[in-house]
């Protein structure tokens, strides 16, 4: 299969996810600037989620700049990633409706962690398809950044039952880790 079709599908799903997220934003009831305060929790959840989804899109793009071959394993791993990303609008609605309840905060981490697993599996499937000497395998190496991300989500979800603020801080830490495009991939990408 041509990797471009897989990229196009991923681009389309991510565009829909972002569209659904923004459509969930509601206009404040009043006309004063202070009325935006009521929408602030949802705006924060939207901003965090937008950046997260954008990071997956950006890093997914870098994966495929290395011109990998794809097979059924890659397709299924990528669908697993897209499944979790498609749940992001649901959990941000729950965060807003429940005033960032413990359950919603944990679910947010489960969804983000599921997406991280999906991205990790997609990387591994591409490496399996292209071999241990492929550009991606050489660029990723031991993937401390990927393993670290999974560990942070694994810690954040149970910690949300101790303090949702600690969990949210850990979710933001993951964003900070990935905010700069992954240089391991961009230095080997096609021009």
Automatic annotation (TrEMBL):
GO terms for molecular function: potassium channel activity; proton channel activity. The chain crosses the membrane at residues 12-33, 39-58, 70-92, 98-121, 150-180. It is a multi-pass membrane protein. Its main location: membrane. InterPro entries: TMEM175-like. Keywords: Ion channel, Ion transport, Membrane, Potassium, Potassium channel, Potassium transport, Transmembrane, Transmembrane helix, Transport. It catalyses: K(+)(in) = K(+)(out). The keyword Membrane applies. Belongs to the TMEM175 family. This is Uncharacterized membrane protein. It comes from Novosphingobium mathurense. The lineage of its organism: Bacteria, Pseudomonadati, Pseudomonadota, Alphaproteobacteria, Sphingomonadales.
């Amino acid at each position: 299969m041509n990797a471009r079709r897989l990229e196009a599908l991923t681009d389309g799903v991510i565009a829909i996810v972002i569209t659904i997220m923004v459509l969930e934003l509601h206009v404040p009831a009043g006309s004063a600037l202070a009325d935006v305060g009521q929408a602030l929790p949802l705006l924060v959840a939207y901003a965090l989620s937008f950046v997260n989804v954008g990071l997956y899109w950006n890093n997914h793009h870098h994966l495929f700049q290395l011109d990998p071959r794809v097979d059924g394993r890659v397709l299924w791993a990528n669908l697993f990633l897209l499944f979790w990303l498609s749940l992001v609008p649901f959990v941000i609605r729950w965060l807003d409706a429940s005033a960032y309840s413990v359950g919603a905060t944990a679910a947010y981490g489960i969804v983000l962690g599921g997406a991280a697993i999906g991205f990790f599996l997609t990387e591994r499937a591409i490496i399996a398809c292209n071999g241990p000497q492929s550009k991606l395998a050489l660029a990723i190496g031991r993937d401390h950044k990927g393993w670290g991300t999974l560990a942070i989500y694994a810690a954040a979800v149970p910690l949300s039952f101790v303090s949702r603020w600690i969990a949210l801080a850990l979710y933001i830490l993951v964003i900070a880790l990935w905010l700069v495009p992954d240089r391991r991939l961009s230095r080997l990408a096609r021009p």
